[in-house]
TrEMBL record:
<dbReference type="GO" id="GO:0005737">
    <property type="term" value="C:cytoplasm"/>
</dbReference>
<dbReference type="InterPro" id="IPR051908">
    <property type="entry name" value="Ribosomal_N-acetyltransferase"/>
</dbReference>
<dbReference type="InterPro" id="IPR016181">
    <property type="entry name" value="Acyl_CoA_acyltransferase"/>
</dbReference>
<dbReference type="InterPro" id="IPR000182">
    <property type="entry name" value="GNAT_dom"/>
</dbReference>
<dbReference type="GO" id="GO:0008999">
    <property type="term" value="F:protein-N-terminal-alanine acetyltransferase activity"/>
</dbReference>
<dbReference type="Pfam" id="PF13302">
    <property type="entry name" value="Acetyltransf_3"/>
</dbReference>
<protein>
    <submittedName>
        <fullName>GCN5-related N-acetyltransferase</fullName>
    </submittedName>
</protein>
<dbReference type="GO" id="GO:1990189">
    <property type="term" value="F:protein N-terminal-serine acetyltransferase activity"/>
</dbReference>
<feature type="domain" description="N-acetyltransferase">
    <location>
        <begin position="23"/>
        <end position="170"/>
    </location>
</feature>
<keyword id="KW-0808">Transferase</keyword>
Amino acid sequence: MTLDINNNLRLELTAERHAAPLFAGLDKERQRLAEFLPWIDEMKTLPDFTRYIKNCELLYEQKKEVSFIMILDETPVGRIGLHHLNLHNKMGALGYWITSQAEGKGVVTRSCKKIIDYGFNQFGLHRIECKVAVTNLKSQAIPEKLHFKKEGILRDAEWVNNKYNDLFIYSLLQYEWERE
């Protein structure tokens, strides 16, 4: 499945064929990405990352996650998705990461808009959450730009780099998105 955003940016459903080029981007940016992503250290080799991608495909089949690869100018530059899907409560959690070469080009914001629309209109979600480390200012800018409501701080909520991080929790409700 592909979600077109514009002539140079699209989202492709996460698939094993993306493993090698996406791992190459991740591997070059390992230190920067590991600051806020707890799973980076587990992705030491391409086979590690391929297993991770296969698990993403399984979670999609189980309707627990839907994730996409952000493709900018025919190059994979990151991942975005709705994770921890709870279809009974009509909730999901927005997550994303991007390589530094694609930063500052509106890729994440435009991709988030597309995935939010997808979540509300295709999955019938009512609530989308976004959790962001309180020290990750670049990532905080995304939900704030998209008019998510900051609900509070989850204290010591994520173990990254041998320490706990506090997370801001943001949410967006379906009827709030429709008003935008």
